[in-house]
Amino acid sequence: MDGRINGMMCRQIERAFKVITIFLTIAVFASTARGDLSGWRIGIDPGHGGTDPGAVGPTGLQEKEVNLTASLGMRYFLVRQNAEVFMTRTTDVTLSLSSRANFMNSNDVDRSICVHHNSSSNPDPNWHLTYVAEGTGWATSGDLAFDISHRVTDFNGLGFGWSNCGREGVYEENFYMLIYTYMPSVLPEISFISNPLEEQRLYHDRYCYGNGRGMYEGIMDHLGGWGGDAGEVEGHALEIAQLPTEFKLHQSYPNPFNAQTVIPLELPQRSMVKIELFNVSGRNLGTICEGIKEAGWPKVHYNAAHLASGLYFYKVVVEGLEQGGSFMDTGKMLLLK
């Protein structure tokens, strides 16, 4: 009897620690002073998605992923301040630029923020700029861009790129989402995913959430939303928001690749994960990964430098260790050397 009770207590304690870990991912950024954005409608467009990866970092990190992570972080803080938030996408889907602009216009949002990360063929640059339509650098859009740029760089420590309108951190450029939306609109290019050191920072959700927090704080500065009493972070709501709801295998990236690739998973609970590699003849070439993974969005990195060019298949088998359940799926990847 005592052994069973102790076992139950250990599992409960383990679960509590996992919840706390997820909670702290964003809670560490939570403001001690709560404000109020009641009545404000904020539109967020995480750039790229689906078949459009956006820019790709030196080791294969895709811009569409970090755009979404930073956007979800921004949404979390805005909702806590009672803003009504509209997002063009909350998952990895393909959307046209016209559908994104129409989404903002049809929802009559007060401000539109289109989130991106920059890239260059030169691996050295790494700075921040927020873009606005031509002629708006000193108008309402420029005011928002200025506040967002300064708050984001307060967090990530980057400098500003050159401004063509004389306003630090702001650049005028007629991007689609800036000229085909009817409300004040900005497009933050948070940092350069092409910079090797920055790409490594962007692999961490906590860093991307921090950039989202910076954009949120810029919006608060712009709209005068600061003030109010100290508030508590809603840990239970955050836990629900941050855990996947089902097992899922995503397409490896980059694909085609040479010679390193990443296999993303979604795990709603702590699980035993095994990934095996097969060639086109069905021969088992060995195990890519085998072990326990925590709930969340783990990414399995694989180096295929020892393999010949060709098409390969990876088989994922998952066994849930908390609520039970199992999952199996297969993906394919093309190695080109």
UniProtKB/TrEMBL annotation:
Cross-referenced SUPFAM superfamilies: Zn-dependent exopeptidases (SSF53187)
GO-annotated molecular function: N-acetylmuramoyl-L-alanine amidase activity
Occurrences of domain MurNAc-LAA (ranges): 101-220
Gene Ontology BP terms: peptidoglycan catabolic process
Domain of life: Bacteria
EC code: 3.5.1.28
Name of the protein: N-acetylmuramoyl-L-alanine amidase
Species in which this protein is naturally found: candidate division LCP-89 bacterium B3_LCP
